[in-house]
Amino acid sequence: MNQEDKMRYFKLAIIVLMLIMISCSKPSKTKVAIMTKLDSASIVGSSEVNASRIFLEDNPKSRIDISSFDDKWLPDETIKQYENLKQQGIDIIITSHVSTCIVAIKDRINTDQVFAMVSGATTNELSKKNDMIIRNVLDVEKEQIRIAEFMNESLSKAENKFDKLLIIRDLENEAYTKPALEVFLSHYQPKDYQLIDIKMSGINIRDLQDKLKAMTYNSLYLLIGGYKTNCGSIAQLVASFKPGLPIMYTPWMKSPTLLETAGKTIEHSIIPSHYPAKGQNQTVDQYVEHYKSKFNTTPTFISLNVYSALEIINQAIDNGSTKPQQIKDYILNTKTFKTRFGQIVFDEFGDVDMPLYFIYDIKEEFLR
Fold this sequence. Notes:
Layout: H1 3-25, E1 30-36, H2 43-58, E2 64-70, H3 75-87, E3 92-95, H4 99-112, E4 115-118, E5 133-135, H5 140-154, E6 165-170, H6 174-187, E7 193-198, H7 205-213, E8 219-223, H8 231-241, E9 247-248, H9 258-262, E10 269-273, H10 282-295, H11 302-318, H12 324-334, E11 336-339, E12 342-345, E13 357-359, H13 362-366
Parallel strand pairs: 1-2, 1-3, 3-4, 4-5, 6-7, 6-8, 8-9, 9-10
Antiparallel strand pairs: 10-13, 11-12
Helix pairs in contact: 2-11, 3-4, 5-6, 11-12
């Protein structure tokens, strides 16, 4: 080999070495799965996926690599998609499905030592557990106590008085609605209520009408979750027997599609919210306006939970915590996080305590 060949190989070796060094110095991405309902007709799933897109646009240096998994908010499908993401080597998850779905995979999550940030399911089966599941949303106990206290306070008012309460409960998401009713009734002071159980996917309207005719009530609590906003039609049916009665929804009905089904009953309805009403929080308002201008629709508010979950996980990763146990430990040790939409404080179990706001002008809320 002559001197010229030696020099050529030497230069080539230097180039290869430099490429290796550049490759090694570039931070690797951390895979994060978002598990939700992604069918084309679902404003819920699209809101959450779009929230992740906005997050990455807002944080171009983020080392998070996001993949979305469609569990259709069905427990059996949730199990399939969980196994699917595991096969793809993903062990960090943000979930925004209903309580029955997280209950279906919670044991697998803990056995596999996968980290999960729950942004939607409130079931008490996750509460006060030292496990791999952390939640940035109120659990069902705190949520229902706040709703019961609100109704108790209404009794001294002339309007929107929640006495002689009719509760219509959906049993299809029973991991939420069963404990929700138990907690609610233990704190609802009047104790004067009537209960109708239904399944939203197969309502017998004639049977429901007969029950309503036979009952006496002054107010309505629709204990229904999972963004089943067609429950607005039930509100209209009940109001046809008792016009103008005050109606309470759960926080999980806060979607613009409720306006389409509730008709004029929306004018005497109240909905709890994890975020302040329009005009009370500039940051939330700005996010909603930006979302509307970008996607030409109003987001569901669970998408804000997904955005803040990404912020928290991103902070953990930036501080060197990239593995499931490391991320959990970082969050529990840090405890307090300042997110785009406000402060979140975790307790020793990874549960949170935060306000619940009550929205009176629901129509205005979605005409942002």
